[in-house]
Amino acid sequence: MRRLEGKYIAITGASKGLGRQLALDFAREGAGGIALVARHADRLYQVREEIRALSPRTRVLALAADLRDTKAVESVSAALLSEFQGRLDVLVNNASTVGPSPMPYLLDYPLEEFRRVLDTNLIAPFLLTRKLLPAMIENGGAVINVTSDAGVTGYSGWGAYGISKFGLEGLSQTWARELEGAGIRVNRVDPGNMDTDMHRAAEPDEDPTQWADPAAVTEVFLFLASDASRGVTGRRFQAQEDWRAVADEALRESAAEAAPEAEPAGREG
Amino acid sequence: MVAQSPIRFTLPDDLSAHEPPEKRGLTRDGVRLLSTDRREGRLIHGRFDRIADFLLPGDCLVFNASRTLPACLAASVERLEAPSDGFEGRVERAAERYAGSGAGRRLQIRLARRWEDGAWSALALGGGGEPWGGDLSGCRLLFSGGGSARFDLSAETIGRDPLVDRLWKIRFSLEGAQLMDALSGLGNPVRYWYADGPWDLDYYQTVYAREPGSMEMPSAGRAFTWKLLLDLRSQGIDTAFLVLHAGLSSFMDQEYDAGHPASVEPFRLDAPAAARINRAKARGGRIVAVGTTVVRALESIADAEGRVREARGSTCLRITPGYHLKVVDGLLTGFHEPEASHLDLLSAFLAPEKLGRVYDEALKEKYLWHEFGDVNLIL
Hints:
The structure holds two protein chains of two kinds.
Chain A: E1 8-12, H1 17-28, E2 33-38, H2 41-54, E3 59-64, H3 70-83, E4 90-93, H4 111-132, E5 141-146, H5 159-178, E6 184-190, H6 197-202, H7 219-225, E7 236-238, H8 243-258
Parallel strand pairs in A: 1-2, 1-4, 2-3, 4-5, 5-6, 6-7
Chain B: E1 32-36, E2 43-47, E3 60-64, E4 66-68, E5 72-79, H1 87-99, E6 106-114, E7 120-125, E8 139-144, E9 153-160, E10 168-172, H2 176-186, E11 211-214, H3 226-234, E12 238-244, H4 254-259, E13 265-269, H5 271-282, E14 287-290, H6 292-301, E15 311-315, E16 330-334, H7 342-346, H8 352-364, E17 375-378
Parallel strand pairs in B: 1-17, 3-12, 3-14, 4-11, 14-16
Antiparallel strand pairs in B: 1-2, 5-6, 5-8, 6-7, 7-10, 8-9, 9-10, 12-13, 13-15, 16-17
């Protein structure tokens, strides 16, 4: 049995890098439907064709939109919910922008660019999630937010990007708490350094061969999207670290909460 | 035959909710709740966010999760077929007459229903929102608006609606996700005279709406917030969702509306929701419909024992005084206009004299009517 058999999934930033890789891996695991969202239609259509070749039974929707535009968020939501008949099991908020390259110090940061980064990396996931959560209220589901090391530590030069990811970390934690009783789990994943166009643009002087291929970091996403992670919420995972230890601990805690009356194992007398 | 309302009253203008509660300084769930006891007819005034006071663990609230479409579109008319009777000129003259001098041949098109084969029924109105009686056969409608040239959407008329002759059947140039995308960009929510607006589509959605398809908001559940829904669940009150795509409630002609009291509306109840409803019922819980659409859908599929099953179809069920409710025990609904067919449906829950007292009280206490207004729980 494949891990995502029949699941309906939406991925933003799905035309390249990590988003594209997730779409391919989710399709391989039997996803029933995948909605790909990104700005560039041509690249999206390419990914759609790749998925069709890999998994002909997966229904693929390619939705070209710039999610900074709130009307586009509504369009994408309406199109996706209509085509999937109100069903969505997994949402991956992956789209993000690093802002100007080379990255200016905060004091030098143009206000318009600062807003653009926050709109893309923080406001858009907030709005999109809010519009799509109703599809999960009855049967539960998973929201996975893609964060970064720069979302927990302030690095000089990572200005608006880092700040937007700090916000996304808070958004994830708050939502996880608020949705505890709804069967909707909200987790965040720091994929670590990856060799993507975005990373190359952010750090043009670094050697990209030291960075991971996106294909090497998707396992934790597959876990979080699948029913195996039921009960795991509000957690932060690092894809290139020992994320399984975090997962195991979360699963143990979830099981203990679900059975509060049970006798502790190994208790004597 | 024109339907007779079970009760009579006059609704003063100041009792129409002109704007969403959020624009009146209230929260979504801060509207008023008039609770009515079905047996005793006893009335209790309260606030909607205290609705849990009237429910018991084991009760099951059933919601309509249909999402509202921006079903109102601006269109210009283009003739496709050669006229045999000077038809083109007639369309142009009529459209111009209704659209005012500057706007050219512009009509307001309100989507009324989507057919299984992908065609839609639509109501044509003049630029001022008045009924437009012109002939649209053999025409193409070109849609524009939304301040964007991104959408290239048109539709061809394919005849009159066989059930409601005031409506035209049309076929859009796009379908599926592309059509939804274009409607989101070009359309606006259907708005009636009492709404100050225009309000953004988000104001016309319930927080749990998940499947686009209603021409007007199934508004009875508008006051629910996520917090309230989750609080109710934690108190042991179950929730189940079905989808019924609501059609247009008015053809902008009172007499015509009265002659067409119950439209045919598509709905779907999935197996898990049906099981939830049956389980609640079997354990003695009350089934509370959030909105008249839910009553129609559930009563359409209930068997004699009041059990429901997974279903996908259309309902044209018209519930009138004396109807024996098979599955639904209670109803949360807004306040309805004097001539509305909804009042017939309400009188299946409350005898007309008790219903009359509810409405007298609501008028006296200045409850607000319509989709942004206050609500009535009949249980």
